[in-house]
Amino acid sequence: MTDLFKNIFIITFFFMISFSANAQNVTSPEEFFGFRMGEDRKLAEWVKLVEYYNLVDEQSDRIKVVNMGATEMGYPFLALYISTPENLARLDEIKAYNDKLVDPRGISMSEIDEAVENSVAIVVQSFGIHSNEVAAPQTAAETVHDMLTRNDEDMMRILNETLSIFIPAFNPDGQKMVVDWYNINVGTEYETSPLPWLYHKYIGHDTNRDAFATNMVSSKYGAEILFTEWNPQSYIDHHQMGAYSARLYVPPYAEPIRPAGDPLVWREMDWYGAHIAQDEEINGKTGVINGAYYTGWGHFGFH
Ligand SMILES: [Zn+2]
After folding, report:
1. What phi, psi does 127 have (nearest 5°)?
2. Distance from C-alpha of 280 to C-alpha of 207, rounded to nearest angstrom
3. Number of domains in the chain
4. Rounded CA gap, 174 and 177, in Å?
5. Three-state DSSP state, 165
6. How far is the CA of 73 from the centre of ligand 1 (A)?
7. Residue 161 to residues 54, 91, 121, 123, 231: CA-CA distances in angstroms?
8. Ligand 1 mean position, distance from CA 299 (Å)
9. What are the CA-CA distances from residue 22 to residues 15, 26, 28, 50, 52 (Å)?
10. Do 237 and 285 belong to one domain?
11. DSSP assignment of 78-118, as one string?
């Protein structure tokens, strides 16, 4: 959402509050990378992050890692499916129920009720479509670890009642470029210098504007998850705020909103954002803003 280069980490997600139980001996990002995600002057790069996700896939039965294929520069594009082992064992069934809810034409009310009763909500989260907003893909690794290890009531409810699909790096090529550039320059006077070329082989920052055209490989994978395969009930696209505005921006968008959208969508977004903001405030996060700054008249990328 902003072109400014940032080197200040801002944790963008309330799950960061960790109550790690480590019941399944799932390696933490700190153990794997040698530093905690978000630590000053430390960034994990995509090839190692892929190794990390493949490792926890072997260690935990709450995650299924899917390599959707190669990006323009040949790096894997991952989708991470996270839920209870029981839900992960019935993905086809959940998808069949979800298909009925997504397009209920010709389906009886009792079948719809059955789908609602027996399925789970599909929640997609994507991270780091703008590669210079470095916090998001780091946050993803920490959040995944939380979801694989926490056993408290809130997390068990999330796992039981939702299928989470993570796109842990929406532009893997750019993530690697930005982190490699940073690691060359960290500790020198050029430490905060921005990448001197675009962080995508073809379209740079316009990775999210490509949502309507889906010309790029990563856009096609994202669109496949969001618009053809799953059509989630909930989608959050994690960016990173710049250094000179609110620290945390959460839904809803500000007025004016597009009148063509169903009013219920905007009202539900109010609820959703209020819940996120309230949890952030409860957990002592400061600088949380919503209903401002980004209007509901903007382009919405993959939203
Ligand atoms: Zn952004």
Report:
1. -135, 135
2. 28
3. 2
4. 5
5. strand
6. 21
7. 24, 13, 6, 10, 17
8. 12
9. 16, 6, 9, 21, 16
10. no
11. EEEEES-HHHHTTHHHHHHHHHHHH--TT--HHHHHHHHHH
Q: How far is the CA of 191 from the centre of ligand 1 (A)?
A: 21
Distance 190 CA to ligand 1 centre (A): 23
Cβ atoms of 38 and 135 closer than 8 Å: yes
Residue 63, in any domain of the structure:
yes
The rounded distance, in Å, linking the Cα atoms of 250 and 158 is: 19
Same domain, 156 and 290: no
Using the mean position of ligand 1's atoms as its centre, give its distance from the Cα of residue 119 in Å. Answer: 32
Q: Are residues 256 and 241 in the same domain?
A: no
Which residues neighbour ligand 1 (ion) by CB within 5 Å?
1, 130, 133, 239
Residues 71 and 218 in one domain: yes
Residue 43 contacts by C-beta under 8 Å, 6 or more apart in sequence? 134, 138, 179, 182, 183
Query: What is the CA(195)–ligand 1 centre distance, in A?
Result: 16
How many whole angstroms separate alpha carbon 225 and alpha carbon 222?
A: 5
pLDDT in tens, 71-101: 999 999 999 999 999 999 999 999 999 999 9
Can you give the pTM of this predicted structure?
Answer: 0.90
How far, in Å, is the centroid of ligand 1 from the Cα of 29? 24
The single-letter code of the amino acid at 205 is H
Six-digit token string for 200? 């995508």
How many angstroms is it from 271 CA to the middle of ligand 1? 23
What is the residue range of 295's domain?
247-303
Could you tell me the distance, in angstroms and rounded to a whole number, from the CA of residue 111 to the centre of ligand 1? 40
Q: Could you tell me the distance, in angstroms and rounded to a whole number, from the CA of residue 105 to the centre of ligand 1?
A: 36
pLDDT tens sequence across 252-289: 999 999 888 889 988 999 999 999 999 999 999 999 99
